[in-house]
Amino acid sequence: MRQQNSDQLQKSESLTTQLVMASQPYIYELKMKVRDYECDLQGIVNNANYQHYFEHTRHEFLLSKGVSFSELHKQGIDAVVVKVEMVFKASLKPMDEFLSKLYLKKEGLRYIFYQAIYRISDNRLCIIAKTDNAILINGKLGYCEVLDKIAEEAKIN
Amino acid sequence: MRQQNSDQLQKSESLTTQLVMASQPYIYELKMKVRDYECDLQGIVNNANYQHYFEHTRHEFLLSKGVSFSELHKQGIDAVVVKVEMVFKASLKPMDEFLSKLYLKKEGLRYIFYQAIYRISDNRLCIIAKTDNAILINGKLGYCEVLDKIAEEAKIN
Amino acid sequence: MRQQNSDQLQKSESLTTQLVMASQPYIYELKMKVRDYECDLQGIVNNANYQHYFEHTRHEFLLSKGVSFSELHKQGIDAVVVKVEMVFKASLKPMDEFLSKLYLKKEGLRYIFYQAIYRISDNRLCIIAKTDNAILINGKLGYCEVLDKIAEEAKIN
Amino acid sequence: MRQQNSDQLQKSESLTTQLVMASQPYIYELKMKVRDYECDLQGIVNNANYQHYFEHTRHEFLLSKGVSFSELHKQGIDAVVVKVEMVFKASLKPMDEFLSKLYLKKEGLRYIFYQAIYRISDNRLCIIAKTDNAILINGKLGYCEVLDKIAEEAKIN
Hints:
The structure is a homotetramer of 157-residue chains.
Chain A: H1 7-11, H2 14-21, E1 28-33, H3 47-64, H4 69-74, E2 77-88, E3 97-107, E4 110-119, E5 125-137, E6 140-142, H5 145-156
Antiparallel strand pairs in A: 1-3, 2-5, 3-4, 4-5, 5-6
């Protein structure tokens, strides 16, 4: 094993990163803190937990707009993730506090969340994500007027 | 909320899907089964758990080649995920058995795993993923000769 | 910080341990393997995951008897845990394979699972647990004839 | 399946409950909120997650006293759970906010946390737990002066 410089790694970031960076300004942010049990044997937050952070942030955002993910489910309306892209730029560690931010956009029938996690101690961008969601109404593809309204409002901001 | 047909959704699959589909034939597969606790209030496997499935499959694959993720960590060598792309095509449910398959390719300094999950009951492709990994040796970007050899062998197959 | 011998710790094991040890012979066992993501920053399986292992074992046991936890839920019948006792005797580590065993007993309206995890490499008893479950039928305490029959059969064995 | 009244279930609560109830007044509390991904297919928080809540509360309590679980680990000092007892009295659901409270006591070489979760909306006691912890110093049983001091202070309060 030998060490090399990181130029080659950085170059390939490209598209996803650019797209996500362009999504600012974010319309919602949630302050969170790493919990020790979310870290794995490498001593850093296990990757799957970032999806948990992002999901929780989306749901809290929706709640702030009066929309409950669990209530929607009871009504036969399910928001489902159809695509996820995540780029990891720095790892979160035990005791780290962070801001989980998002922006919402509608493209066709998809509700697309651009999300990012910033470590509070040094304002460093740690992880960025793009999550495409679809609305299933009793199992069939549909749309949700409340979400459409939120996406419209986000556009104006 | 109204329902529409799913054409518009399908069209946008595009690139990621094609890339991943092209990655066959896979060089490793692991039979797994959904555990009830992995399902969320929608009654389907929570998205973050697919990352767990994929991670576990990568680690079992490495073990089958004599490489232990946890032993590497003890030696100061960490395989870290730098990018994830996942496309969700069908949800796994309680009791579902599935095959988790992978293909490995090296691009520059990145070890790229193309992964897919097929439900066993009907051989349906459920989730596809592309995971870019980097090797950090005592925190600096490097490479791993054993992984390089595995990637070389995969190419020949 | 100073080290002392472990006599004092062992002595206090007492009741729970004895009860659980007495539950043998077990009527079901499931072979499992630690997944790296289940380990926390101490490099050992995080305690909460043993509850996952135990839950999964109970559900697989029920399935082997033709009873599905998720199907029961759809019918308005929920098996809920009302009490858990766990004694940790040795930690599971990455790559460990283990047998998760159980015994079922009915006491009053409670379905009590005595469970234990044995590491395969050295047959060491790692964790023992006693889980009391109640049956809720549309939210009210009830009982389940199928489970009663299983508990009766277990008694005979 | 038939429904019966819950007297028989309540009677058997007994010892654990009494012990834990006696532990008040608590010396630390942490406000938390259920995250949707912590709920399972029954639509309520999965039992294993209460262990996560309790663990996170203990670690935040320690941090409030200047003790970091992850830093201890780096120094070769591991707090490990040797026994857990939990009694479940009411389930937490999506959107529930709750107070996670604890009391610390030293018994022999064990650091015993009495913990309870109260739902904020109606101040209902939902789950109580007693967790016995041991200190391992480079793998051998020991004790931790800082924790001893905290336990002493708790006694006075």
